[in-house]
# Entry
Amino acid sequence: MSNPTDPRAARSRAAILVAARSLLLDEGPAAITHQRVAQKAGVGRATVYRHWAQPGHLLHDAMTGIEMPFFHEPETPVRPWLRSHLQRLADALTTPQIAGVLLTLMQGALRDPAIAVQRDECYEDISGKLRTALALAVANREIELSADPHDLSTLLVGPILYHTTMQARAVSPQLIEQLIDSLGEWHEDPAPRAARP
Amino acid sequence: MSNPTDPRAARSRAAILVAARSLLLDEGPAAITHQRVAQKAGVGRATVYRHWAQPGHLLHDAMTGIEMPFFHEPETPVRPWLRSHLQRLADALTTPQIAGVLLTLMQGALRDPAIAVQRDECYEDISGKLRTALALAVANREIELSADPHDLSTLLVGPILYHTTMQARAVSPQLIEQLIDSLGEWHEDPAPRAARP
# Structure
């Protein structure tokens, strides 16, 4: 166990985390070994081992510091917000860095309860924002929602993640419109219409 | 390099592959190290190293031998076939073994061209069967398809994979009906109707 009040230990811990995050983003989770991380951080293997006896815990802590560029706070009108944020998500998931971190979370969560907690937080963040967005759209009379609010990220993010990582293709604007359409009956631009004579 | 005509080398190679597959299914890809595989196969580390100098290649070859229990040949009427096969897929993906192998394929394919080939074959197998099934449904006048035939696995398998591995929940029959409904306009049981007076 390292002493958390020792400034040298704190510096080496921070350097190890930076190195581990960089290896995770560049090469994927298999690169998170004591040896590779020590080399990258410029510290001894024993130092890495002293902070994180298990590579799984280091992977967990490295992932905690990675910001996933998913959804911002929803805005009205909701449909254009949804369209641009789904396209941004689709673009991010075509990079091996972002797709790799998300798949590492999903893969790690299958067997590691601490990573399952991170996966659940990431899921709740995404699906909470989508629920808020669609509740706004309902209140704003943009849509008569037919999808279950708890299925929103399954219906929107699931196809995009699969398309980029399993089918390995960029997501077309048409596919995004189709996913948005599948949530219920949208009314076109209700605000401009209300202003018509 | 090992000599492929040496029966002892062939036996140890087979034992190593069995051990690697078992570790992959039970513990995930992180367990595919020379040390763990050698221990499990009851051979020396040097023997594993002689056959597979890189753990990534061993992971690749171990995955080649795992049969993914996805879709059988399509049958008419297509809707009940689709319903039962999507439910079977959803059930399989709630096990860490099957979900783990699929996520390993998706994760590994991001950076390893040989695993990308396996991922593409798996994708083609799934999406080819779904295209055949929906072509049958169109020919059988069960559906007026509005989805792009190349998006079928994105629209059906993507949400199921996300729901089981990211949302970590079993897929309800209602969600499966909703996914099937989203493909186009289905006609109810066309065969019995044609027989009506």
